[in-house]
């Protein structure tokens, strides 16, 4: 437990700094292009394209397949060096090919994701895409290097490197505002120089982020060298594993295409693509800090236990990690729900826009706790080299997401589209978690579901009065339309005050009832605080 704790703290501290700097990055970006605007949505589509391809590379292959394979290769006589060199060479060649194809297909890709854009918006988004799509290579290289480091239990660099990206982006977006003013919301006001500075900054940050990992490579005890002799990598075995995962992620991307096209119809004066991305960023803040920082070291340990056939230890890992994640994630859900308007003001250009964007965040929050459970359940299947089962329960979720988005596009007004799409996605995710948990329970003849479900119910009951206390504080601060909506800084301060009250009441209630998860969770949290 001590090694898990140390790794969680290292990842958690890095993730906190990374996410906070990422918030500042997005604040500056919103100041440059607006949150609810045609130009903002055009950039959002273009800059999301490399992220979507990165999701296929990272989630679809590396997390599901590479980490367990590297853990196994560590038992080889050379500690896995030959395997990793072959894998790295193969990955680099594949990334170069994928980037070239994406660049060639840039106009088509933009059209696929935003068919309801105006012609001028499509042209602007395509121009952004040519600058952004080189990120595919560097995102993939970063993911490959980072997952290799994670598998070798070098967790820190992968978490801390994005901070450098955020610093580069903040400087570049700030330079854009200095040179051209902001927010630049009109589609026809953009010049080639403006496009180059904004999108070039976004890509430059990813390049620097990737290069940073190379400085930490020696810690992994590996000597990489180009190796084009791929016979020994186990491509056939990896291909079988990755095939189902690839199809799973492709299904997710197709659902995302449907969502993006529905949202593109609201672009201009209502929350659409960029506003939804910003709401998702707020949603992902607690998920990244809590779920990824605690869950990533558990996944490495769980993979080792699964590879050794120690099913009892795997069950214990599942139950312990869900209870620990649940303690923090339930409190975060309550705090962010109460502070939805002040938090949304951080990424909008005025109080009215904050009020319009807050329902999108609330609808996403419906599935925050279930997604924390899914993180553990899905990666347990991966640890057993089972990528086929996750494909089917994720395919179900994707079908529900796409159907829900299309239904929202038919029955909802423009101003309600973003919130409706977010809600249907949350409902689909809840269904996915229920099905996935049932399948894993059957596979392992039990995963302690009753134990961790009792803990989640107890955390939720404690969160209700905590949320009520937070809402009371919001009213004392002037309500959703009070001073906490005056500026991005006021929104951040207001959300921080409300969140602190919710957390204090939540912890107090759990302490009163002597909740067993409280002591280890607080010990983990104290490790994140700076020492004297």
UniProtKB/TrEMBL annotation:
Record carries keyword Flavoprotein: no
Subcellular localization, as worded in the UniProt entry: Cell membrane
Pfam families: MurJ
Broad class of where this protein is predominantly found: membrane
Keywords: Cell membrane, Cell shape, Membrane, Peptidoglycan synthesis, Transmembrane, Transmembrane helix
Superkingdom: Bacteria
Ranges that cross the membrane: 7-33, 53-75, 87-110, 122-145, 157-181, 193-217, 238-259, 279-300, 321-343, 355-377, 389-411, 417-440, 452-477, 489-513
KW tRNA processing (keyword) present: no
Membrane-topology descriptor: Multi-pass membrane protein
Name by which UniProt lists this protein: Murein biosynthesis integral membrane protein MurJ
Organism, as annotated: Microbacterium mcarthurae
């Amino acid at each position: 437990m001590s090694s898990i704790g140390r790794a969680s703290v290292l990842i958690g501290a890095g993730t906190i700094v990374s996410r906070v700097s990422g918030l500042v990055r997005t604040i500056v970006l919103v100041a440059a292009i607006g949150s609810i605007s045609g130009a903002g949505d055009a950039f959002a589509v273009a800059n999301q394209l490399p992220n979507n391809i990165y999701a296929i590379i990272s989630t679809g292959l590396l997390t599901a397949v590479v980490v367990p394979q590297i853990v196994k290769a560590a038992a080889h006589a050379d500690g896995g060096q030959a395997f990793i060199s072959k894998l790295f060479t193969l990955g680099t060649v594949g990334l170069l090919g994928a980037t070239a194809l994406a660049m060639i297909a840039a106009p088509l890709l933009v059209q696929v994701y935003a068919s309801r854009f105006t012609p001028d918006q499509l042209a602007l988004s395509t121009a952004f895409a040519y600058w952004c799509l080189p990120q595919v290579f560097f995102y993939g290289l970063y993911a490959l290097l980072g997952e290799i480091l994670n598998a070798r239990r070098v967790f820190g660099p992968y978490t801390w490197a994005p901070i450098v990206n955020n610093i580069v982006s903040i400087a570049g977006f700030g330079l854009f505002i200095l040179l051209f003013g902001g927010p630049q919301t009109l589609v026809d006001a953009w010049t080639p120089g403006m496009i180059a500075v904004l999108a070039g900054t976004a890509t430059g940050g990813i390049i620097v982020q990737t290069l940073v990992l190379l400085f930490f490579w020696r810690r992994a005890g590996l000597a990489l060298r180009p190796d084009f002799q791929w016979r020994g990598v186990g491509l056939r075995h990896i291909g079988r594993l990755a095939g189902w995962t690839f199809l799973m992620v492709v299904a997710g991307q197709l659902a995302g295409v449907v969502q993006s096209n529905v949202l593109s119809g609201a672009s201009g004066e209502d929350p659409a693509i960029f506003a939804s991305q910003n709401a998702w960023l707020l949603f992902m803040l607690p998920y990244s800090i809590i779920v990824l920082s605690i869950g990533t070291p558990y996944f490495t340990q769980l993979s080792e236990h699964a590879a050794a056939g120690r099913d009892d230890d795997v069950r214990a890992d599942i139950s312990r990690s869900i209870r620990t994640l649940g303690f923090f994630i339930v409190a975060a859900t309550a705090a962010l729900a109460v502070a939805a308007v002040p938090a949304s003001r951080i990424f909008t250009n005025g109080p009215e826009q904050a009020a319009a964007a807050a329902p999108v965040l609330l609808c996403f929050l419906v599935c925050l706790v279930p997604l924390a459970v899914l993180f553990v359940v899905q990666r347990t299947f991966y640890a057993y080299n089972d990528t086929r089962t996750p494909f089917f329960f994720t395919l179900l979720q994707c079908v529900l997401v796409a159907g829900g988005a299309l239904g929202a596009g038919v029955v909802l007004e423009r101003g309600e589209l973003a919130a409706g799409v977010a809600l249907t996605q949350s409902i689909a995710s809840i269904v996915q978690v229920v099905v996935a948990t049932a399948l894993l329970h059957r596979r392992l003849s039990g995963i302690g579901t009753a134990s961790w479900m009792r803990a989640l119910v107890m955390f939720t009951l404690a969160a209700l009065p905590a949320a009520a206390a937070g809402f009371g504080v919001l009213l004392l601060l002037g309500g959703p339309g009070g001073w906490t909506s005056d500026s991005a800084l006021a929104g951040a301060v207001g959300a921080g005050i409300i969140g602190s009250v919710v957390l204090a009441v939540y912890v107090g209630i759990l302490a009163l009832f002597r909740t067993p998860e409280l002591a280890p969770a607080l010990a983990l949290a104290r490790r994140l605080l700076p020492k004297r």
